[in-house]
Amino acid sequence: MILIAFLGYNSVYFQKLSTHKNQKNVTFDFNLFADSLYFKGILTNTKAIDLNELLVQIKENSDSAFKTHGNRLGIGNSAFFMVKSQGKVSKIDNGQLTIAALNGSFINLETKYIFGNAIRDASGLVKLTDFKTNADFNKVSEALNTVIREKVLPKNISKIKIGDEISFTGALKLSKKEVLGLVILPVFITLKEK
Q1: Domain extents for the chain?
Q2: Mapping DSSP to helix (H, G, I), strand (E, B) and coil, where does residue 69 land?
Q3: Using CA atoms, how far apart are residues 51 and 40, in angstroms rounded to an integer?
Q4: Predicted confidence (pLDDT) per residue in 83-129, tens digit
Q5: Record's superkingdom (predicted)?
Q6: Which residues contact 107 (CB under 8 A, 6 or more apart)?
Q7: CATH class of the domain at 33-191
Q8: How far is the C-alpha of 106 from the C-alpha of 99, rounded, in Å?
Q9: Up-side HSE of residue 180: CA atoms within 13 Å toward CB?
Q10: pTM
Q11: Crossing angle of helices 51-60/62-69, nearest 10°?
């Protein structure tokens, strides 16, 4: 009898109805979170590696380069990297900038079609375990991509023209198996003053 009373007492608790109602009405503001993630996290994040240095490290020891500089959420041959570089704009085509890098290679910056999880994952600032569902985790990517695509990049690229020198930081997905044409999703672009 004592055991039943003890179990009954510990299995029931009371909470104010107003507190319970308020908890149900609280929704997570993904747009506010994405703004904060971008302006207080990604912009101040100094972990971006120079793109040329990364590519050299991958050629020398891809396992080490991926482990040291990459971020991946699971197993596999791909990882996301936050990289930085500079060069001269050689082509502008429907939101994609082709950059002639200092080492003679060409890099494509996609400024119009910013979609997917590359920026979120390359930043290393958000973990799957931070959210209850995969859908919520993906909403972070959507909101972050929107901030960059609609608020940040239009200001960054409005004055850029062919021949201008720029520096940039962006997200890149690479596979250990092969490194093909590089398409980077920029998180910011800076036009060098002449």
Answers
A1: 33-191
A2: helix
A3: 23
A4: 999 999 999 998 899 999 887 889 999 999 999 999 999 999 998 88
A5: Bacteria
A6: 51, 85, 87, 98, 99, 101, 182, 184
A7: mainly beta
A8: 5
A9: 3
A10: 0.81
A11: 140
